[in-house]
Amino acid sequence: MKKLIESIFIFLLLLCSLQSSQAQVPENSQLFVDIMTMDSQLFDEGFNQCKQTVFEQRIDANLEFFHDKGGIQNRKEFLAAVKRNICSSQHEKPLRTLVPGSTQIFPLENNGVLYGAIQHGEHRFHTQGKDPAVSGYTLAKFTHVWLLQDGKWKLKTSLSYDHQQKSGKAATIIPVGKTVKPIKLLELSIASFSWSLYFRNLKN
User: Fold this and answer.
1) Pick from 142, 136, 143: nearest CA to 193
2) Distance of alpha carbon 147 from alpha carbon 113, whole angstroms
């Protein structure tokens, strides 16, 4: 828990610094388009459609996943949890949807050479087969660190935090599998299928 809190604190400080210097890239930039594409592959295809090979291709060998309710996972643990708790059955399957207006993307450079990017925004989660406008959804924040390795993007660090259960009144879900260009920022979601239940199953 201490490591999780420290990591979130460091990320938030970094984001504040980046925001104050207006370092985020515009949505029509190649970096923004690239990260949006990677996100769509990782979650529209990997998470929502359970294409495990897509997940494996986009996740770094040394992935660190931090969750404010379920602790820390490495690559092996994360992939196993997705397979067991997300993709083992279509019953109560959680879906992660993209919603316009939440993500900022910041370049990471070394002496002017791009080596990665920070993607920051919000999640919304709902359950397959259920109308989020009726059943509600889970809203949370996320921060991702993407690294560019041999010309390919890999997810190195993922933080998911500030999870809150919401009523369905404000739910506006973008169809799964459709790549959507956001107005300004990218918002991510995963499921009104509670992440608390997800991680409870993980530990059992």
Assistant:
1) 136
2) 12
Q: Which of 16, 204, 199 is nearest to 104 (CA)?
A: 16
Tens of pLDDT, residue by residue over 177-194, are 344 343 333 333 333 333
pTM summary value: 0.72
- Give the count of beta carbons closer than 10 Å to the beta carbon of residue 45: 17
